[in-house]
Amino acid sequence: MTDRMRILSLAAVAGIGTILLWQVVPEAAQAQAELARRIVHTDPAAFRMSPAVHGGAGSMGFTALLNRGAVTPEFNFLHRGEIPPGAGIGHHFHNTVEEMFIILDGEAQFTIDGRTALVKGPAGVLCRTGHSHAIYNSGTKPVQWVNLNVSLNAGVYDNFDLGDTRAGAPLDPIPNFMVMRLDRDLLRQGGGRGRGNAAPAGPPTTVVTRRALGPAALSTTWAYMDHVLVPPGASTNEMKHDNIAEAIYVIAGNGTVTVKTTASETAPVRSGDAIPIRLGETSVFTNTGTEPLEFFIMGVAKDMAAKTQILTSGARG
Question: pTM for this one?
């Protein structure tokens, strides 16, 4: 029997002896439950308030959606939180990890290596290994924020705080650092690096995508950042993850993700979800809602050799 069976209760019935009551739990349902447990949803009630993060101004609330090792051993975390007006993360160095702050909406003052500029979302700013960064909300509205982190060495996180809130810092009119834009109008129908390629025996899909940040910009096994939008009723192509694992954050919409190893598993996803896709799996996203399903993808290579292959050939996971 391929279905898993579980005893629910044992009842004694007068005159007819003992009856065993069973519930049949199909393997497919078990697999779907396992995939669903892997997906973590943003819950503002779970945000932990922390004062003076890295010596920053005020207090901010955040939580880890994906923890260390959720994608690869070098992957440290995907945090989600909110930065209130007048609060931020203080100026600090990373010498072993690289990190990106992403604002989903609003605007904030970003600092890289002591140079500060105002950046409007949706956008992210990368801090490469060996450099310093900070973020400060100088506006009047809370900033919705995501933080991504990958290490050169598995299981290692480092920081060196400078004791500088960057509140009132002089601003450059144009950022003197790399800014990753997540504007929908920059997306295009999938090319060789996107999830919207034509199916092998069919017309091009209507999925639009963009490589927002490529491997040359990143110093660890972090390989790329992709931005994807799936219209209602459409699906992405099946992607194999032989060399690249992915952490995916759903910006907007509703749909499903199907993950396949030896068996195929499908689970619902919605705005605010973080989904880890592991090495050796394949993945497909389908929009089951009435609005676009939008997400960004953080690709992390299994090693530097796999990342170098992407850098030299333009290959995907």
Answer: 0.87
| Residues whose CB is less than 8 angstroms from the CB of residue 300 and which lie 6 or more positions away in sequence, other chains included | 71, 72, 74, 75, 150, 221, 222, 223, 244, 245, 246, 247
CB-count exposure of residue 46 (10 Å: 0-12, 13-18, 19+): middle
pLDDT in tens, 262-317: 889 999 999 999 999 999 999 999 999 999 999 999 999 999 999 998 888 755 54
Range of the domain at 107: 44-181
Task: Compute the chain's Rg from CA coordinates.
Answer: 22
Indicate the burial class of 39 (C-beta count within 10 angstroms; 0-12, 13-18, 19 or more): buried
Domain membership of residue 27 (yes or no) is no
Burial 54-70 (b: 16+ CB within 10 A, else e): bbbbbebbbebbbebeb
Own/partner contacts of 204-211, CB < 8 Å, gap of 24 or more, are 205/234, 205/235, 205/236, 205/237, 206/231, 206/234, 207/231, 207/234, 207/235, 207/236, 207/237, 210/186
7-46 tens-digit pLDDT: 334 344 344 444 444 444 455 555 568 899 999 999 999 9
Asked whether residue 119 is domain-assigned, the answer is yes
Kindly state whether residues 56 and 137 are assigned to the same domain.
yes
Closest CA relative to residue 79, chosen from 107, 56, 104, 96: 104
